[in-house]
Amino acid sequence: MAGRPPHARGRSVSAHDEETSPAGTDVAIHGQALSKSYGSGRRAVRAVSDVSLKVRTSEFLAIIGPSGCGKTTLLRMIAGLETPTDGTITCCGGPPARLAREHRIGMAFQDPALLPWASLRRNVEFVYRAAGRRPDRERVDEILDLVGLRSLAHLRPHEASGGMRQRVALARALVMEPSLLLLDEPFGALDAITRRRLNRELERVWTVVRPTTVLITHAVDEAVMLADRVVVMSGRPSTIVREITVPMARPRPEVPDESFRHAVQECIEALDA
Ligand SMILES: Nc1ncnc2c1ncn2[C@@H]1O[C@H](COP(=O)(O)OP(=O)(O)OP(=O)(O)O)[C@@H](O)[C@H]1O
């Protein structure tokens, strides 16, 4: 299994410390002074305030922070689904909307929103149809294998467990080999055991495919278990207050070791600050 990439080595830093931001041509996501407000006048909500971040190609970044601090809004700006009120963002060297148009962004959310009448396989194939392409059956088989669903692919969503449905969501997000994988609380609705199992599977799949990944989660241990780097957002103002590099090789240990506990503690302290 691949070890942690050399770029993941580092220290805990301020989000605005340019020296510690990934430099050079391998920057996949580059947001500069991003702000987003909804509405106007006295009813305006400043959802994200002055966020700058860089994410390297093939890096796994997790975002944690209190409810309502702007995590989803930030992810939606990265996906090209929201336009920043201020600041700029590029993904793979161009505007996010271009990447989205080229179907190079894979997304999965807490609610997998599967087509109820279609088999799990057809739900995965649907990604191709939505992009106006013929499904690549070999690739669909490969991704179903990777998420452990090949033998269950004939089931309909109502016959599948919550964990299986989330695996379909992950397969859908990955099947077209996206440059960016954006995950918004994908396992938030699952029980602790299934969630832990899917964390392991996501780690394994990510190690094989290695897309640049941004994961939003409320679970600090999930963030530390999966990410190269954890970004902590605060509620007031809605911005990045801390970045924590996770100094652990992959696969991450089953039993939390000292560096895992230390990284979790750092995240908790940043959240409580
Ligand atoms: N489309 C919208 N219109 C108006 N306000 C919005 C919209 N989307 C989000 N907001 C507001 O922006 C703020 C940030 O919301 P966002 O969903 O980005 O936070 P979050 O950190 O992802 O929250 P949670 O962890 O609860 O999912 C909140 O105050 C929210 O009410």
From TrEMBL:
Report domain ABC transporter positions: 29-260
For the keyword Nucleotide-binding, the answer is yes
Report keywords, A-Z: ATP-binding, Nucleotide-binding, Transport
Q: Which GO molecular-function terms appear in the entry?
A: ATP binding; ATP hydrolysis activity
Q: What are the boundaries of the signal sequence?
A: none
Alphabetized CDD domains for the sequence? ABC_NrtD_SsuB_transporters
Basic residues compositional bias, start-end: 1-10
Membrane-spanning intervals of the chain? none
Which InterPro entries does the record cross-reference, listed alphabetically? AAA+_ATPase, ABC_transporter-like_ATP-bd, ABC_transporter_ATP-bind, P-loop_NTPase
Q: Where is this region: Disordered?
A: 1-26
Domain of life where this protein originates: Bacteria
Q: What protein name does the entry list?
A: ABC transporter ATP-binding protein
Gene source species: Microbispora triticiradicis
